[in-house]
Each structure stands twice: as structure tokens, then as C-alpha cells.
Amino acid sequence: MPPRWAVTGLAGAYAASYAIGLLITAMLLRRRLEGRLDGKRLCRTYGKLTASALAAGALGWFVARSCSSTVTSTTWAPALGLVAGGLTMLLVFVLSARILKISELRSLPGLG
Predict the structure, then answer these.
(1) d(Cα 95, Cα 2) in Å, to the nearest integer?
(2) Which pLDDT score, from 0 to 100, does residue 46 have?
(3) How many CB atoms lie within 10 A of CB 27?
(4) Using alpha carbons only, what angle is made at residue 29 by residues 28 and 35, rounded to the nearest 5 degrees?
(5) Which residues touch 68 (CB under 8 Å, ≥6 apart)?
(6) Residue in 106, 88, 85, 110 with CA at minimum distance from that of residue 97
(7) Which of 13, 79, 89, 106 could potentially form a cystine with 60 if both were Cys, beta carbons 3.0 to 4.6 Å apart?
(8) Which candidate, 77, 73, 51, 53, places its Cα nearest to that of 65?
(9) The whole model's pTM is what?
(10) CA atoms within 13 A on the CB side of 23
């Protein structure tokens, strides 16, 4: 992997290890709870969370890219892109999670 893609590779490896850990944990929990693990609900919730994260990531990337390219200052362009992209990701994730009716969102203070 070329050095410029190292961070992307690390993120991909982290996501893959998280998914493997989730599967192992689910199998161990199912065994410990004697099969009473609600797999359909868990899969549905993780699917909704993944959809929200993908939408937030895509829109956040687009906004960060747009803001970084519009500012001519080489000092402030990355900072503006970071802040605008981060805020966009946060807002889009929370909004899409509310639209998809993710029940765990109600447990967060101020969002219930």
C-alpha cells in the first residue's frame, strides 16, 4: 500500500476488526444466553446505524472538500474543511438516525 493511503488502510483494518469482534461477541453471547439473543433487531439497528454513518460520511466529505477548495488561504482552508465537514457529519448522522427511528438515540441526553 502506498504511504499516502496508509491512514485509509488503517481505517479499513479497524472497521474489519470491529466487524469480526462483533461477530465473535454475538456468537459468545448467543451461547451464554442460550439462544435468546434478538439477532434480527440487532442486525436492523446496526444496518440503520451503518446507513446513517455512510450518509453522514459522504455528505461530510463533500462539504469539507467544497469548503477547503473555496478558501484561498492555505492556513485556514484545512481548518474550515475540518470544522464544516465535522459539523455536517454530526448533524446528518443525528438527523438520519432520527428519521430511521433508531431507538437507542432516545437514551442520549437532549435527543430523546
Answers:
(1) 36
(2) 84
(3) 11
(4) 105
(5) 77, 78, 80, 81
(6) 106
(7) 89
(8) 77
(9) 0.69
(10) 5
pLDDT at 71: 73
Q: Which residues contact 99 (CB under 8 A, 6 or more apart)?
A: none
> SS3 helix, strand, coil % of the chain, rounded to 5?
80, 0, 20
Work out the widest C-alpha separation in the chain, in whole angstroms: 61
Neighbour-count burial of 100, counting CB atoms closer than 10 A to its CB (0-12 exposed, 13-18 middle, 19+ buried): middle
- CB-CB neighbours of 60 under 10 Å: 21
Cα–Cα distance for residue pair 31/63, rounded to 1 Å: 45
Residues 33-88: tens digit of each pLDDT: 877 767 788 788 888 999 999 999 999 999 999 888 877 777 788 888 899 999 99
